[in-house]
């Protein structure tokens, strides 16, 4: 059997239906074999970066391995940004890169290249993959595929890479004679886990103001139903990282919502006044804690459950103390928690819940400045609210980065079964469209939605043609504020509003009419600019079975408020409340700079 046919077969047997890539001299055999396989398709993308992102989106939507295939050199290096998305968000993907033939590899010779387009892909990708290897003999292909596949899913999932020299791709192998990979047995002790959970439940019972913080780790792999059961039984108010806003539907009685640097104030008052914070599947990123770590949930006992112990120890000596550390995969943790909750009676915490309700009512989303008279545009929060009304249960959304992500995560009213994805921790512009393409090929549901900014779209504009070519039923909602909105605000905050490279006037090149570009690339287009009722246009858009591009004219002055300026505690977001107002709302003592412990603080970046 030809080696690349073996690869295609291996993937198909594990349920992989699509691989994404671009052909090239060192990839033709992989392309050919995947294309020939009766249960697989190779999808040609217009940029390898988008192929890696499509593989990532495919994996998030399907729970299966996402696969990208490219040629050597530039084809392979173009995969890097998408691979980082999978690495930082723990998404299982496989990058298959072609390489020059083994006899053309430079090996230890002190030159830059021997083979044409030779690049040390393994070295470049090693820091951002769980496993990166170059195939050295054809007989190793089964072992390497099995090992890479195992590693991609085990523990904390993530991307893997196999670099396949051209001559090995063409080699004939005898599958029955190949050695396989045997993983080491897992040694986790369930008795220890049960004991740790017992101790945690005692802490919860004793707490007066507990909160559960859910994060994206609960989505990789997916553990929804047992999570819902455990959350309901525990009865603790739930905060959500943006990656987890879809884990509890909006009308769930325990859902408080998101929090953090760009989070709503109600969430921030909740976490800051908690006396017990239990973090499940979240690394408590700086976007959640703020930059002054010692000010975060400063009187709370913090418990964390994570399969990656380094995520718990990384705070040591930095201002946050993770007092309770449970090293476990979330699925295992919840499976061990559930039986212990059978006899659990939630203390109720009615006063604490009433207090949270008060914050939710007192701090609705901040109002944006109105558009100047005569300007045809819509308020982003208003649009997101109306979109929420139109989106059905089980809709799948991919959101890009910047203002569009912030307004969507803070404003969306998620319904049961909806899934919202973004490249939460790498946040590259230009992720949402290719990721939505990957998801659409696995699951072409007409409610599949891609939300992107005009800046982000420019990084993957050509993929509109991929959407049109395959008639993928993606509804592409362009949040067109004629600028890099988030960066404009960053410059207003830190550089006195002197704009450089954030809108056409300060140097950006944008098409005047995005819709015309989308039309030219083969898409049906709509415009939403406030002239017609938003909900009515959206209903027409979602009634279309195929792809639609919607140019949504967003108020160009729309801000990302509230936001935390570096150096402040989470309760002190801008626009600032008066000191007495903050004092009145806080249960714990308001934070003052004098309280800053002499510990290292992480340096904040003012934007993304
Ligand atoms: C590849 C990449 N380059 C630069 C950035 C920094 N950055 C984050 S958001 C942003 C502007 C995004 O503009 P747009 O997509 O229009 O979003 P808006 O904030 O206007 O909604 C920039 C430049 C980034 N995240 N990714
Ligand atoms: Mg924009």
Structural commentary:
By secondary structure, the chain is an alpha/beta fold. It has 3 domains: 3-177, 3-Layer(aba) Sandwich (Rossmann fold); 190-362, Rossmann fold (3-Layer(aba) Sandwich), CATH 3.40.50; 380-553, Thiamin diphosphate (ThDP)-binding fold, Pyr/PP domains (Rossmann fold, 3-Layer(aba) Sandwich), CATH 3.40.50.970. Helix content is 36%, strand content 14%. The chain contains 24 helices and 18 strands. α12 (286-289) links the parallel β10 (276-280) and β11 (301-306). α16 (380-390) packs across α23. The longest helix is centred in the first third of the chain and has 17 residues, at 190-206. The protein is globular, with a radius of gyration of 25 Å. It starts with a helix and ends in a 23-residue tail after the last helix.
Q: Any descriptors?
A:
Rossmann fold, 18 strands, 6-stranded parallel sheet, binds magnesium ion, 608 residues, alpha/beta, binds thiamine diphosphate, 36% helix, 3 domains, disordered C terminus
């Amino acid at each position: 059997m030809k080696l690349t046919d073996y690869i295609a077969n291996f993937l198909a047997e594990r349920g992989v239906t699509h691989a994404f890539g671009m052909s090239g001299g060192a990839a033709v055999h992989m392309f050919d074999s995947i294309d020939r396989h009766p249960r697989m398709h190779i999808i040609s993308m217009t940029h390898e970066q988008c192929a890696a992102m499509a593989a990532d989106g495919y994996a998030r939507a399907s729970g299966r391995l996402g696969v990208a295939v490219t040629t050597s050199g530039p084809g392979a290096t173009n995969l890097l940004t998408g691979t980082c998305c999978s690495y930082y968000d723990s998404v299982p993907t496989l990058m298959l890169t072609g390489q020059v033939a083994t006899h053309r590899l430079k090996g230890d010779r002190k030159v830059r290249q021997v083979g044409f387009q030779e690049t040390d892909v393994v070295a470049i990708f090693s820091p951002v993959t769980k496993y990166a290897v170059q195939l050295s003999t054809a007989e190793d292909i089964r072992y390497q595929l099995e090992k890479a596949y195992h590693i991609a899913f085990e523990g904390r999932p993530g991307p893997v890479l196999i670099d396949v020299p051209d001559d090995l791709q063409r080699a004939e192998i005898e599958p029955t004679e190949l050695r396989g990979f045997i993983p080491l047995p897992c040694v986790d002790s369930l008795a220890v886990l049960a004991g740790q959970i017992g101790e945690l439940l005692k802490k919860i019972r004793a707490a007066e103001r507990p909160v559960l913080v859910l994060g994206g780790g609960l989505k990789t792999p997916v553990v929804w139903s047992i999570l819902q059961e455990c959350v309901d039984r525990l009865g603790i108010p739930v905060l959500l990282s943006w990656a987890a806003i879809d884990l509890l539907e909006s009308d769930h009685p325990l859902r408080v919502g998101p929090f953090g640097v760009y989070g709503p104030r109600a969430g921030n008052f909740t976490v800051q006044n908690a006396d017990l914070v239990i973090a499940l599947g979240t690394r408590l990123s700086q976007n959640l804690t703020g930059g002054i770590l010692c000010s975060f949930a400063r009187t709370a006992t913090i418990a964390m459950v994570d399969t990656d112990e380094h995520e718990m120890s990384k705070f040591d000596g930095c201002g946050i103390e993770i007092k309770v550390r449970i090293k476990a995969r979330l699925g295992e943790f919840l499976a061990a928690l559930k039986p212990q909750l059978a006899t659990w009676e939630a203390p109720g915490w009615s006063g604490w819940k009433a207090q949270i309700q008060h914050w939710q009512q007192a701090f609705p989303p901040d109002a944006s400045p109105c558009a100047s008279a005569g300007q045809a545009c819509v308020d982003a929060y208003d649009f997101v609210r109306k979109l929420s009304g139109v989106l059905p249960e089980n809709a799948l959304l991919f959101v890009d980065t910047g203002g569009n992500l912030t307004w969507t995560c803070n404003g969306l009213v998620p319904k049961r079964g909806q899934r919202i994805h973004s490249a939460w921790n790498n946040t590259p512009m230009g992720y949402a469209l290719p990721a939505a393409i990957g998801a659409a090929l696995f699951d072409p549901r007409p409610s599949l939605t891609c939300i992107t900014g005009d800046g982000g779209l420019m990084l993957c504009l050509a993929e509109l043609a991929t959407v049109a070519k395959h008639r993928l039923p993606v509804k592409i909602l362009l949040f067109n504020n004629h600028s890099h909105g988030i960066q404009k605000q960053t410059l207003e905050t830190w550089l006195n509003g002197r704009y450089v490279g954030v809108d056409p006037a300060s140097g950006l090149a944008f098409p005047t009419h995005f819709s015309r570009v989308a039309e030219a690339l083969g898409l049906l287009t709509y415009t939403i600019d406030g002239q017609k009722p938003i909900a009515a246009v959206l209903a027409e858009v979602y009634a279309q079975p195929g792809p639609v591009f919607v140019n949504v004219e967003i108020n160009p002055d729309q801000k990302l408020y509230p936001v935390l300026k570096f150096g402040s505690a989470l309760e002190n977001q801008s626009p600032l409340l008066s000191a007495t107002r903050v004092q009145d709302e806080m249960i714990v003592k308001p934070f003052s700079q004098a309280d800053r412990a002499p510990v290292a603080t992480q340096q904040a970046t003012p934007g993304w």
